[in-house]
Amino acid sequence: MTQADWIAVDWGSSHLRVWAMQGSEVLAHAASDQGMMRLAQAEFEPALLALCADWLRPGRVTQVIACGMVGSRQGWVEAPYRATPCSAQAMPLAQAPTVDPRLELWIVPGLKQASPADVMRGEETQVAGFLAQHPGWDGVICLPGTHSKWVHVSAGEVVSFQTFLTGELFALLCQHSILRHSLSGWDEAGFTEGLELSLDRPERLTARLFGLRAEALLLDLAPAHARARLSGLLIGAELAAAKPYWLGQRVAILGESGLARSYAAALDRLSVPVAAHDVTLATLAGLAAARTRMKDQTCAR
To answer: Are 94 and 193 in a shared domain?
Structure first.
């Protein structure tokens, strides 16, 4: 039986991931599809225990440090946003009520920005973890995903950030639009083509999206080429809009490996200094740093 010193949790809208931790060492990992959107408030604790009950010791309280949508208004308990600009790492955690006496749950707050209005939950922990791994780093951190984030970091502070609905649009178009009949597989040449088209004329995005359907009907456009071009079109439009973030900056990418490679390749074509990093390691480093700061604050009282 794995007996955790503490438990790290990344709880998003769609998925729950947990790690049994001994200091900074991972002892075990588990995951489920019990994301925030699937759960009523009373169901959060059972969903967590379903994955980590065997890591808990009888008669001993185990700290759980969580980030993500678990701290949203619809989550286990709301962890109020911190306003930017703010320290990337000084996060006052919110405690959540638990029924099981073996659990002590703390949630990392998200970040908010008044103008232009924007919010994040979960990515702030990845940013904090990346900075813990790379002290003194300044630049822009790109976090591609369902809702891609571009985060300007300077002197240990989150200066500003911007979110793009790119990943969600890709999923919606693939699954629920007229284009779904024309998309499957992947052809790297299609991605490059879509990327260049969008970077050249981003204002033509919606016309070029329908063009995928027309070319499939009239010109036998291959489904793999069409799907990859769709991704390139959407990411190209995002990069065109995010130019104030990456222009003249070095960029670190934190994301799922395949998607991170696509963003890195796209930025490399724009001659942007870019490096991709492991997002899971950044998440764990951010959760570990949050736990350490909480312990230091508790000892100082």
So the answer is: no
Q: What is the pLDDT of residue 298?
A: 58
- In the predicted model, residues of the chain with pLDDT beneath 70 are 1, 296-301
Which residue matches tokens 């813990």?
132
Locate the DSSP E strands across the chain: 6-11, 16-22, 25-32, 62-68, 82-83, 86-87, 94-96, 103-107, 111-113, 118-120, 139-143, 148-154, 157-164, 251-255, 274-278
82: domain CATH number is: 3.30.420.300
* Structure confidence at residue 300 (pLDDT): 47
89/178 Cα distance (integer angstroms)? 44
Q: Sign (positive/negative) of CA torsion 180, 183, 188, 193?
A: negative
- The model's pTM is 0.93
Sequence-ordered strand ranges (E) for 108-245: 111-113, 118-120, 139-143, 148-154, 157-164
Q: Which of 133, 180, 128 is nearest to 156 (CA)?
A: 128
Which structural domain range is residue 228 located in?
Answer: 163-278
pLDDT by residue (tens digit) across 55-103? 999 999 999 999 999 999 999 999 999 999 999 988 789 999 999 999 9
